[in-house]
Design a protein that fits this description.
The chain is mainly alpha-helical. It has three domains: about 10-30 and about 135-150 and about 170-280, no CATH class; about 40-120; about 295-384, no CATH class. The chain contains 14 helices and four strands. The strands form two sheets. The chain has a two-stranded antiparallel sheet with strand order 1-2. It has a two-stranded antiparallel ribbon with strand order 3-4. The longest helix is centred in the first third of the chain and has 32 residues, at about 70-100. The chain is extended and about 95 Å long.
């Protein structure tokens, strides 16, 4: 694929259309469409063994009635169908009674919400006035208005930061090389989910070497213009149910699926800005979030290491004072009797040194010390 011809001063929307239109047309004309049949999840519902046997017997009677449509086979099938219906009704009744008898409010609400939730999409929603909306257009408008109301609008005010680098140090451009494009596309998750323009990550992965050059030229032009294309502002928003009542719009959160090419653009800009910040020590060592090879787990390990070093330093200081405490009275006594030389009894110094040796072994070599204590002969040889 050749790079689109980009003229000086050309709008980014026109440049994006020149790049994306041939690819979209090629996908439309040459990529075959495959119908995907989604199986219902009702068949995977758990039922007791006696109900499963009754259902299998009902299926056998249905096949028998279909092959031989007589009054006798029909009556037998209807009797079995009524019997299965009664078994399922009694089983569901027993489940509901067990939920009630538990007297657990959380279990009760989970059971009720499971009955109210719609697995194939968003169920009926209620407006603030209490009116129930069932049609898709009304639910779409209601969810869109709610998501727009809770969205935070940027006020454009930037916080003041003092300059921490020299005046000649700055980042004035982002280089969108073909190598960076290939690396970024390779790091994308391989899914078949399409973005608003019909592209998926598997498609880009298979054509990454062909598309690297054109994507590099288009991205460089977009960055130099300082404006992103209007198509990149579009996204497929999917409401995801959180918890609570499924008919309340406040219990849904939006998941936006944006353009894959905008993700590639953002990742390259983010990586080069992060490299600039790390090279000039603009990010402190206390920053653990949103950094590669750093997380809350590494932060906890770092804190544990600092706490351990602090505890060890405190213990060493305390035990040093404990070891020096027996010498303080003798130092004071000798300081008054003999200013030129301090003399201690030999037996006192020997006992003091043995005491220091034992404390040192207890602190730093507890396993070896316990082994020596268990054998008095070895303990005597090691100490004396």
């Amino acid at each position: 694929m050749s790079c689109p011809s980009i003229e000086l001063g050309e709008s980014v929307d026109l440049v994006w259309d020149k790049f994306s239109r041939p690819i979209i047309d090629a996908i439309h004309y040459f990529v075959p469409k495959k119908a995907v049949h989604i199986r219902s999840s009702k068949s995977s519902r758990y039922r007791p063994r006696h109900i499963r046997r009754a259902l299998n017997k009902k299926h056998r009677l249905w096949r028998s009635f279909r092959n031989n449509m007589s009054i006798s086979t029909k009556c037998v099938y209807k009797e079995q169908a009524a019997y299965v219906k009664k078994l399922i009704y009694d089983h569901n009744k027993q489940i509901e009674l067990s939920v009630i008898n538990r007297a657990n409010l959380g279990t009760f609400y989970r059971f009720v919400n499971g009955k109210l939730s719609c697995k194939s999409g968003v169920g009926p929603l209620k407006t603030p006035s209490g009116y129930t909306i069932v049609d898709d257009v009304g639910k779409d408008e209601l969810l869109s208005n709610y998501f727009a109301s809770v969205f935070t609008v940027d006020n454009g005010n930037l916080p003041d930061f003092s300059r921490r680098v020299d005046d000649d140090v700055c980042i004035d451009e982002i280089i969108f090389s073909s190598i960076d494009i290939v690396k970024t596309v390779s790091s994308l998750k391989g899914t078949r989910t399409t973005d608003p323009h019909g592209f998926n990550s598997l498609f880009l992965k298979r054509l990454k070497f062909i598309l690297a050059g054109p994507v590099s030229s288009v991205s460089s032009h977009i960055f130099s213009a300082g404006v992103i294309p209007s198509a990149w502002r579009e996204s497929n928003v999917t409401p995801v149910f959180k918890k609570g009542i499924s008919s309340d719009v406040s219990n849904y959160r939006p998941i936006s699926l944006t353009s894959l090419f905008s993700k590639i653009f953002e990742r390259i800009v983010k990586q080069q800005m992060l490299t600039y910040l790390l090279n000039h020590n603009l990010i402190t060592n206390q920053q653990f979030g949103f950094l590669s090879k750093r997380s809350t787990c590494t932060q906890l390990l770092d804190c544990l290491n600092d706490w351990t070093l602090f505890v060890i330093a405190t213990l060493l200081t305390s035990f040093t004072l404990i070891l020096l405490k027996p010498l303080i009275p003798l130092v004071i006594q000798n300081s008054f009797t003999n200013y030129s030389r301090m003399e201690f009894p030999d037996n006192y110094l020997n006992s003091y040194l043995i005491f220091c040796l034992i404390v040192f072994n207890v602190l730093f070599y507890p396993t070896e010390f316990l082994h020596l204590v268990q054998s008095p002969v070895e303990f005597h040889k090691a100490v004396f």
